[in-house]
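User: I'm writing a short report section on ligand binding and want a predicted complex to refer to. Could you take this sequence and nicotinamide-adenine-dinucleotide and write out the structure as tokens? A short remark afterwards would be nice.
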Amino acid sequence: MKIALSGYGKMGKIIEKMALDRKHEIVLKIDKDNTHELTADNLRQADVVIEFSTPDSAFNNIKTCVEAGVPIVVGTTGWYDHLDEVKQLCEQTGGAVLYGTNFSVGVNVFFHINKMLAKVMNNYPYYGVQVEEIHHTQKLDWPSGTAITIAEGIIENLDVKTEWTKALVSDTDDADSNVNERDNELLIESLRIENVPGTHTVIYDSEVDTIEFKHTAHNRNGFALGAVLAAEWIKDKKGCYPVTDMFNFSA
Ligand SMILES: NC(=O)c1ccc[n+]([C@@H]2O[C@H](COP(=O)([O-])OP(=O)(O)OC[C@H]3O[C@@H](n4cnc5c(N)ncnc54)[C@H](O)[C@@H]3O)[C@@H](O)[C@H]2O)c1
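Assistant: Sure. The structure tokens for the complex follow:
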């Protein structure tokens, strides 16, 4: 498969390696210094584009790729205000987009179990619940897209919570003093620590015990491999899909 990379930072470079290991070819690399090369003519050399750039640039890049008729996998987070426009564009043009806050297999298993756990916890209203996420200090958005997906999974399934709220803290022990969340609000605490690829924890806490459900990424390889698998999956499809459609957890 011929792959174009839109965004050649930390993720783009690892995706390149994973793609080459799986015998794919990289035919175009776009980063902030050569954005003018993201043209329909250049894109049409590729079977699929993998987009890991910045929250501000993702939407324009997606539009350019869909309009050029090249399927695109979008790992960039923080652009979802434009999701409806992207869905419409896919319908109008017959384009293909696969998007997700996290492409790692482990995190997608986590998303699934998180929803099941929230359903179970409906029976035990004396547990409070909170989401914590830790990432490296260069991460531009907070809370992480992954933490938002986790929070949405809880809100869909735990009746008492109807919206999420956020706090950026310097130490997870600080958080409660900074935020007055209401009962219907689910707090997401974000912490930034050098060199952490991504840690997410869901905490159910009562007077008698604490249940912690945690995913720790040891490096970025799981996200990168997932993005290449996503590119293989979207290549011959049409439509706009969340990454969860790639996984089948029905068993
Ligand atoms: N979905 C997932 O599994 C997953 C995993 C890790 C990171 N992410 C997200 O992916 C994105 C990139 O992460 P990263 O760690 O590689 O960041 P990074 O800062 O290392 O890389 C981003 C790159 O995009 C480039 N860029 C800037 N403007 C651009 C433009 N207009 N077009 C193309 N490229 C442009 C930058 O120069 C930089 O090299 C972030 O939004 C991050 O949250 C998603």
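A remark for your report: Helices lie at 10-21, 40-43, 55-67, 83-93, 105-121, 145-157, 175-178, 221-234. The mean pLDDT is 94.
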